[in-house]
Structures are given as structure tokens and as C-alpha cells.
Amino acid sequence: MPAKRCIQFLAIFAMVSVVVPGVSAQTNYPGQSPQRPMPMVRCESRGKGRNYCGADTRGGVSLVRQLGQAQCVQGRTWGFDARGVWVQGGCRGEFQVNAYNGMPNWGNPGPGHRPPMPGGPNWGNGAGACFYKEIHYAGEYFCMRRGEKYANLPPGYNDRISSIKVMRGAEVTLYNDSNFGGRRGTTRRDIVNLKNWRTADDPSRTWNDRVSAIQVR
To answer: Could you say which of 114, 148, 167 is where a domain stops?
Structure first.
């Protein structure tokens, strides 16, 4: 390849490499509307402390550009949860927040931090519920507002819930099968460990890692 053409090719390749986002924390599922990009959020950690930037993160968040020398590593120095986008350890970046498309995204508060209650934009009066991978309201989680429902939890969410926190008088109904079928259980109280909540028709079974559909009223 002539030297001039080679230089042009390398220049184009470098431009493409810059604009492709390096980290993504969102998922599109078959049959669901694609997640639409929202205005970007700039979030910066000064020093080693943690900083929150309010955003409705239910549609997922992507790191678009790192702004400083400190590394922005998802789950360690940046992430998102029900409160918004968080950064720490000097991470400074621009983040793409996607519009909620009606399907869950696991939020992660980061190591050593308890999952906060919802506080981002569009949450309303706070009535709803949060669903956690681990007992004692720990680990990755997602939240739903009153009036929302999931008829079919997608792979990675189906049968993965181990504890539930209910807020402001909401009522949660769990279903063993998709499309609100099979066994069901309803609660208006927190469930710290779904292994302790037994199904009504068969006391030998519990609701731990058994949820395939959810309604929040």
C-alpha cells in the first residue's frame, strides 16, 4: 500500500476508535423497544471521595469519555444505582444515560456501599419497591414504581431475586411463571430473605430465586 494511502487509513481508524464508547452498562432484549439516548451527564470525583450525579438510570448508563488521568472502571470507580450515576477515586467522565424502555437494569452501588433508595428524577412520590440479588437488601438491584409491571423478566433477572424492599405503602405481587402465571405471592412489607417466604400452596417451596413476573401496585 502506498505510504500516502496507508497514512489516510490509519487516520480514519484512529477517528473511529475515539468515538466508539468504551464501556456499556445497558441491554436491549428481543421484542423490546431500543434504549434511546438521553442528554449526557458529566460527573466528577474530586479527590478520592464519592460524588453522585442525579439521573434516571433505569435504562442503563454508558461511559462515553474519561476526562482525567484517573481510571474510570465500572463497578470500582464509577457505576449507577437508583440514586443516579456515582463516581469515586478521582474518576471524571461524561456518561450517556439511556431512556427507560420498560425493562430492568441491575444497578450496582459499588463495593462497600449499601444500595441507596431511589432518588433520581421521575421517581414521583417514592411509592414502589426495589428487588435485590442478595439477601439483606444487598448487591445489584433494580427498582419499580407503583403501577409498573414486568410480565417476563429477561435472562439474568428471571429467578435471581433474593430480597425485596417495599416503599410508601406499595403492594408487590410475585409470579412463579411468565405472563403473571403460576404461583403468586403478595406483600406490602419488606422481605429480607425470600428463603423465609414460603409459597402458600406448598410450604416446602420458597420464593427465593423463583420470580419470573412482577406487579407493583
So the answer is: 114
pTM higher than 0.85 = no
Position 6 in a domain: no
Domain tally for the chain?
2
The amino acid present at 90, given as its one-letter code, is G
| CA atoms within 13 A of residue 48's CA, in its CB half-sphere | 0
Bridge partners for 51 per DSSP = 87
Domain with residue 182: its CATH number is 2.60.20.10
pLDDT tens, the chain, 217 aa long: 454 444 444 343 333 333 333 444 444 333 444 445 567 999 999 888 899 998 888 889 999 999 999 999 999 999 999 889 999 999 999 999 999 888 888 999 998 888 887 765 556 667 899 999 999 999 999 999 999 999 999 888 988 999 999 998 999 999 999 999 999 999 999 999 999 999 988 989 999 999 999 999 9
| CB burial string 100-116: b at 16+ within 10 A, e below | bbebbbbbbbbeeeebb
Angle at 149 (CA atoms; ends 120, 178), nearest 5 degrees: 135
Cβ neighbours around 74 below 10 Å, total: 18
